[in-house]
Amino acid sequence: MLDQDPQKASLTASEFRSDWTVDEVEALLRFPLLDLVGRANEIHRRHHDAEDIQKASLLSIKTGGCPEDCAYCPQSAHHKEVDLDKEKLMNPKHVVSLAKRAQQAGAERFCMGAAWRRVRDGQEFDNVLEMVRGVNDLGMEACVTLGMLEPHQAQALAEAGLKAYNHNLDTSPEFYGEIIGTRTYQDRLETLAHCRDAGLDLCCGGIIGMGESWRDRASMLQVLAGFDPHPESVPINALIATKGTPLEHREKVQAFDLLRMVATARILMPKTRVRLSAGRSDFSAAEQALCFLAGANSVFYGDVLLTAPNAGTGDDRDMFAALGSLSAT
Ligand code: SAM
Ligand code: DTB
Ligand code: SF4
């Protein structure tokens, strides 16, 4: 059990749990920061090679015009003031050629995102299956995020060689209604269950910086850590406040707030890949290095995320070189 007095707090429970309470998670998030990071680092090193930071590249295979009303998202058709060109589903061969280019630049995983509410059977889904087969044939981990899925679609993706399905909770069940009105939390949980049933890895995380409280952050992490088994990867996004969305005036996330989220996610889910996701380019190499110490072990890699700029590959090369060993000269 976790002692909830932060001055005396100690972690003595078995490391793999799916029964964390929101109070326990909130106590962890509020720990003295250096103690929290130290504990997270200890758990991280027990379960992972500290040098192993996965590079995942992203591609928007169908952009904009999405019928959902997610308040943070530049791709929602509800936010008419956003400056974004809509694009229809890309050609599978072109997508695979871009995956190959990402692989040559050092990416191990390729995640393809479509601005859809849900997957529909037919030519477009068949094209996505062809993309998955092509990416898989390159020897990369293939991941897609396509909105809601039916069980047979999850099965078809698994048969095409998909490694993971990304479907985020985005925030806590309590705050969710402030952010999204067109689909429910329960809808999300059902899609995630269909993915699990098809044997897909779950890539499931959320966003901070949307106006949620620490209690909400704890509640979202509690839902994530409540999956048994835990999601194989958990992206932690810092809101990119995009002009023309309802959240355009939200303040930037503080680096130490992101650090608390990463460290707590690592403690709750010891084996999961915790990914520094959207918003990473706002943090210095030193701030990111603290997150890696606290257990982050994956990043989105490449000059763009889906529609927004990412940390540049040049900067990332410099950062990873600086985090490696010093050469003799
Ligand atoms: N339409 C699909 C869906 O929502 O399931 C897939 C694409 S959607 C862009 C994938 C995720 O990106 C969202 O769930 C959200 O967590 C994240 N995201 C989108 N816009 C963001 C932003 N402006 N800042 C941070 N994260 C964002
Ligand atoms: C995730 O959690 N973050 C990625 C990925 N999964 C699909 C998307 C971030 C999107 C940031 C805003 C944009 O590029 O449009
Ligand atoms: Fe559509 Fe996904 Fe953006 Fe929501 S997050 S508006 S579902 S693309």
From TrEMBL:
Q: Which residues form the signal peptide?
A: none
| Residues noted as binding [2Fe-2S] cluster in the record, renumbered to the chain | 111, 143, 203, 275
* Cofactors required: [4Fe-4S] cluster; [2Fe-2S] cluster
Keywords of this entry: 2Fe-2S, 4Fe-4S, Biotin biosynthesis, Iron, Iron-sulfur, Metal-binding, S-adenosyl-L-methionine, Transferase
Q: In which pathway does it act?
A: Cofactor biosynthesis; biotin biosynthesis; biotin from 7,8-diaminononanoate: step 2/2
| Any one GO molecular function term | biotin synthase activity
Assigned EC number: 2.8.1.6
SUPFAM superfamilies, sorted: Radical SAM enzymes
Q: Which reaction does it catalyse?
A: (4R,5S)-dethiobiotin + (sulfur carrier)-SH + 2 reduced [2Fe-2S]-[ferredoxin] + 2 S-adenosyl-L-methionine = (sulfur carrier)-H + biotin + 2 5'-deoxyadenosine + 2 L-methionine + 2 oxidized [2Fe-2S]-[ferredoxin]
Query: Do you know which Pfam families this protein is assigned to?
Result: BATS, Radical_SAM
Keyword Transit peptide listed? The answer is: no
Note the superkingdom of the native organism.
Bacteria
Which annotated residues bind [4Fe-4S] cluster?
66, 70, 73
Q: An example of a Gene Ontology BP annotation on this entry?
A: biotin biosynthetic process
The record places domain Radical SAM core at 51-271
Cytoplasm among keywords:
no
Q: How is the cofactor bound?
A: Binds 1 [4Fe-4S] cluster. The cluster is coordinated with 3 cysteines and an exchangeable S-adenosyl-L-methionine.
Protein purpose: Catalyzes the conversion of dethiobiotin (DTB) to biotin by the insertion of a sulfur atom into dethiobiotin via a radical-based mechanism.
Please state which protein family the record places this protein in. Belongs to the radical SAM superfamily. Biotin synthase family.
**Subunit structure, interactors included:** Homodimer.
What name appears for this protein in its UniProt entry?
A: Biotin synthase
Native source organism of the sequence = Thalassovita mediterranea
Q: What taxonomic classification does the UniProt entry list for its organism?
A: Bacteria, Pseudomonadati, Pseudomonadota, Alphaproteobacteria, Rhodobacterales
